[in-house]
Amino acid sequence: MSAARKPSPPESTAGPSPIRRTPHADQAGRAKSPKPSPLARLGLRSDWDIALHLPLRYEDETRLTPLDALRDGATVTTEAEVIGTEVQGRAPRRQLLVRLRDAHWPQDGLTLRLFYFYPNQLKLLQPGARLRAHGQVRQGLFGWEMVHPNWRVVDVEEPLPQTLTPVYPTTAGVPQSYLRKAVHSALNRLNWHDTVPQAELTRHHLPDLQASVRLLHAPPALALPALDVGAHPAQRRLKFDELLAQQLAQQQARAARQQWKAPPMPDGGGVETLPALLRAAIPFSLTAAQERCVAEIAADLARPVPMHRLLQGDVGSGKTVVAALAAAQAIAAGWQCALMAPTEILAAQHARKLADWLEPLGVRVAWLSGSQSKKERGAALQLAASGQAQLVLGTHAIIQAQVRFARLGLAIVDEQHRFGVAQRLALRDSLRAGTQGSGLQPHLLMMSATPIPRTLAMALFGDLDVSTIDTLPPGRTPVRTTVLSAERRDDLVARVGALAAQGRQVYWVCPLVEESETLDLQNAVATHAELSAALAALPRAADWPPLRAGLLHGRMKTAEKRATMQAFTAGDIGLLVATTVIEVGVDVPNASLMVIEHAERFGLSQLHQLRGRVGRGAAQSDCVLLFTSPLSPTARERLAAMRELADGFALAQKDLELRGPGELLGLRQSGVPGLRYADLAHDADLLEAARDTAQRLLRTAPEAARQHAVRWLGEGFDWLSA
Ligand code: ADP
Ligand code: MG
């Protein structure tokens, strides 16, 4: 763990933070008193909360540095004798200078600059008094200085602390000394019963709980290097406990789901079944990876327990056909299937593709979206509710309350991570409501093109089965990626025009300007005008149609967007200027050149998603990443990774290392929700260990498992219905 990746804490003083800190997980539903106590203001309610309020960092006051051993910039504790004091300036700029010396350096050794001091402190600072000061030393104009140090008067033989001094995350008006006392008494009051059996600790080489927590509040100086990188056994113990609670909750949720019932949809396997007919109609044969995923899903659907499966595969890996086969299996068994996509463009594309495949086989398809006319919508709702529509496609309009299905047996969610929390909850509710009156829950298949590294998938979706399409369909040529400075943009515009004139279709992506959709739009509009002019200026045979550039952005009406996409798909538009609305799932096999402006502003997964829009046909495809200097070190690494890596999983792993798991998943915060200590980019082994222990604990010691989950997730945690 390094300080750089942490969310910035309230007291973000310099120095490595030994352990991640975010506010305590479970505060919801607890009464707020009108005048919160200092601890309550930090979200600390129980002794356990306080014990787990771990230091942000530590100060080493266990050793004294003599004055002749000071180094510029070093943070040290030193002890010396006051020679004299002097008040400089006037209030409020008043400063107190304290001059010190020690035996090693009897001249004017070190000056402390104090900004806040009281008259009675001045009395303490008589010549001859011994001071112990802790702070950063600087070589100033008039010798060594320590600005605003921690200091106190000490006796000659006053012993040094044996342990590192903790610095706790805190908030205004809650001093460190208060927290230290609160922690001290909480540690002494706690019932240290260990919820993790000794056998598990031995198995995973983990230390005792009480010893670990006590150590983290007062570690020996020797522990500092390990603590700084989050690798100390005591830290590993707490990370393990946290991950264990999370894994227990997820495995419990999974066990609970096994009690629910879903319609079994046996995979007939005959030649005349809908899945078989669909296979025969598809113009290609499935890859081995696709076949494996199809088989895994088919087996789930055949069981009378709701499927809860994530189908992940890199962009272009061919998830749609796998979903179509699942839909066919559900429909063949007499159930309805709903497919939900995050954007209208994508939903429309699915609608077209699935309808092209399934309608000729007699499947009735209905389409639901937020932008259709009342009449169209009414008709679609009627088809869903009567059961006539066997396949219902659309955006999240599908899970709105008015939508009723006669016999919903399978729900498919494409690009599931693009849906917001509210939409996911609505989906869960509509699935829980189940199929009218039957007491059955539909099967759920989620799809994601953001390849989630295994560790992250396990932490986030421990209660989910995962199928992975890990190879691309054959015949693809890898996309060639070029990183280009924006200073050469004019050359690029000319080159792109020439290529477009040769018939290559081009995406030109303008970045999302954070927090300013308007700017974003202006950008895209201006670029569109510029590129249109460049295309118009190209020499062209008189009988050829003019080369056109299209524009696609989020503010356009759905019908306009759809028309533009259709024109691009049909090849009527040679170049498409777009904001990131094209990021998701769009499939135009003939497009073979992708330009991304301000590529340095995009995250790795996003760049990879965008690049995945090309390279879908057999032709050599290119992706040009334009960047504007200066590049931050991370941006530089990202662009280099894009140039060197083609595999989405490798890129996702890199992204996880560069940015932390939160951003990878498009979450605002930089951690996995609910994880305070564990860091999934670095603690994968602990996650495996926690998963292993959780399985055994639930089987052999359910009461210890429950206690452990409650300790970490709070009393309010609903163990059984999670
Ligand atoms: P994604 O996983 O990104 O959703 P798609 O399902 O859109 O990918 O598939 C990308 C393209 O690859 C589509 O044009 C699709 O028809 C094609 N495709 C899918 N599977 C195969 C295959 N086994 N062989 C050849 N082409 C395939
Ligand atoms: Mg897709």
Distinct ligand kinds:
adenosine-5'-diphosphate, magnesium ion
Point out poorly predicted stretches. 1-33, 661-671, 718-722
Instruction: State the share of residues found in helices, binned by percent.
Output: 25-40%
CATH superfamily of the largest domain: P-loop containing nucleotide triphosphate hydrolases
CATH topology type of the largest domain: Rossmann fold
Distance between the termini: 30 Å
Q: Any idea what the CATH architecture of the largest domain is?
A: 3-Layer(aba) Sandwich
Largest sheet: 7 strands, parallel
Mean pLDDT across every amino acid position? 82
Helix count from the secondary structure assignment: 24
Domain count: the total is: 4
- The helix/strand class is alpha/beta
Fraction of residues in β-strands: 15-25%
Number of DSSP strand runs = 21
**Could you name the CATH class of the largest domain?**
Alpha Beta
| Main sheet: strand order | 11-12-10-13-14-9-15
What assembly state would you assign to the polypeptide chains in this entry? single chain
